[in-house]
């Protein structure tokens, strides 16, 4: 392969190495809210294994812990969604609303 062609091939390896999300001393438990909350998205969904960079066993334990914490109301099931502001109704929608059948 030419040197010129090698320049355009992207490396699959990331140059940034992150620390593993769960340290060896961390205990995966429903009471450890600070650990569990790292694996939940802003909408309140459980993040996938690929995003979390967890092993299968760790992901299972995290999922169980999150579900237990939700049931015991230590974590919310859903995060508060953005509330949409009401705009002034336009002439087109005003005519539809005023119709009485």
Automatic annotation (TrEMBL):
Pfam families: Ribosomal_S18 (PF01084). Belongs to the bacterial ribosomal protein bS18 family. InterPro entries: Ribosomal_bS18 (IPR001648), Ribosomal_bS18_sf (IPR036870). SUPFAM superfamilies: Ribosomal protein S18. It comes from Oenothera lindheimeri (Whirling butterflies). One of its GO terms (molecular function) is small ribosomal subunit rRNA binding. GO terms for cellular component: chloroplast; mitochondrial small ribosomal subunit. Keywords: Chloroplast, Plastid, Ribonucleoprotein, Ribosomal protein, RNA-binding, rRNA-binding. It comes from the Eukaryota. Part of the 30S ribosomal subunit. GO terms for biological process: translation. This is Small ribosomal subunit protein bS18c. Gene3D superfamilies: Ribosomal protein S18. It is found in: Plastid, Chloroplast.
